[in-house]
Amino acid sequence: MPKLTALVLTTLLFVTAVTVSADGEAKPKLSDIAPVENFTSAADEKIVALQKYVATPEAFDKSARKLKRDAGMVAIFAQVIAEHDQDSPAKQSAVPLRNAALKLAVATTLEDATQSLKELKQAQAGKVTSGDVAMDWAQLINFDSLMNEVAVRNRAVGRAVRKMRRGLDQNARDEVAHDADILAVLAMVAAADTHPVKDKATIDGWKNFANEQRTAAIATAAAFRKNDAQGAKTAYTRLAKSCSGCHKAYRK
């Protein structure tokens, strides 16, 4: 499997090995972000929410934006599970889970959403398997939904960084580290989805910002797990600056 040179590796915090995707882009080992079971549990959490959104016609009407976002997130987590370098029983049904989530994300009627959710639940239970793992990460989630999820997770991490000076218990630190793990994955999705870049000559800059967000998020998660308040502050400041820098350069 292709490796980056040692010189380039020194610029990627906590990412010790990479693969090369079909389009030639360097992609970190997913286990360097988090174990595969973390993404399985993250998908399960989103599926609980999705069931609430289609429980009644009223809930469906009120939750269109959240349904699109959370279904897209399940598609992302399923793709991560499918491509993860660690083994897991969830791998066998990850592709059907992704496909059902993608259908649910674009459902416009309660009937379609209910059917897609049924298929999603069957995949979650391992009753449907196989399928083509290959997928363009840019197609996993609507970009506005992606940015909404980034904002939610980013705010949670920022609040926790401020609380670290007074101390956070193990459970709280694990929870925010999980948010940072997901931010790292979302940065990978953003790197793949370059459609917001109007000047295609600046795509490399877009990807650089996304890669910086990924490595800063990984560093933030590691600091929380080590109960390193200063390290968390430093890494999160780096993450926040990469986000604001990207907005300044590309949100026009």
Automatic annotation (TrEMBL):
<feature type="signal peptide">
    <location>
        <begin position="1"/>
        <end position="22"/>
    </location>
</feature>
<dbReference type="GO" id="GO:0022900">
    <property type="term" value="P:electron transport chain"/>
</dbReference>
<dbReference type="InterPro" id="IPR002321">
    <property type="entry name" value="Cyt_c_II"/>
</dbReference>
<dbReference type="GO" id="GO:0020037">
    <property type="term" value="F:heme binding"/>
</dbReference>
<dbReference type="GO" id="GO:0009055">
    <property type="term" value="F:electron transfer activity"/>
</dbReference>
<dbReference type="GO" id="GO:0005506">
    <property type="term" value="F:iron ion binding"/>
</dbReference>
<dbReference type="InterPro" id="IPR010980">
    <property type="entry name" value="Cyt_c/b562"/>
</dbReference>
<keyword id="KW-0732">Signal</keyword>
<protein>
    <recommendedName>
        <fullName>Cytochrome C</fullName>
    </recommendedName>
</protein>
